[in-house]
Design goal:
By secondary structure, the chain is of the alpha+beta class. The chain has helices at 2-24, 50-68, 84-88, 90-96, 135-144; strands at 27-35, 38-47, 107-110, 116-121, 124-134. It has one domain (26-144). Strands 1, 2, 3, 4 and 5 form a five-stranded antiparallel β-sheet that branches. Strand 1 and strand 2 (38-47) form a beta hairpin. The chain is globular and about 55 Å long.
Amino acid sequence: MKNLIVFLVSFFLVINSSAQKRFSNEYEVNFVRSENGKIFCTIFTYCKNEKQCLEMAKVDAIKTTLFRGFTSDIKVYPIIKNLDIEISNKSYFDNFFKPNGRYLNFVEYTQDELTVYADITKKKKKMATNIIILRDNLIKEMQNQKIIKLLDNGF
């Protein structure tokens, strides 16, 4: 009986913690266009306040460019296709994505003052932010850090 209680308490703690993580990682991406090494997109984030939404949108835009890519009429492939690379370079990516981290060097423009949001619930907002990502510069950064191979190697 004691083991059953411990199991149920553990189960509910795991369920509760995964639900909180899912909320913080919840976002949608609309690819607008790509030109001159830049990606223009709209990021819809879900969070508690406007400032948090804006910062999360910038991180989500860079993570999408690095690990997911964009699908639309034109497919823009992710820069890093092997997700094990993120795990093997965890300390680099932790520093890269820390608050006011290096990822901000690859976000050229956001319409901070024109950001649109809607209240989903009292504690949850959905915000749309237009972002321009410097994809070519991001590729160079990943190459310089030896996270991905140079394009002229291996052909």
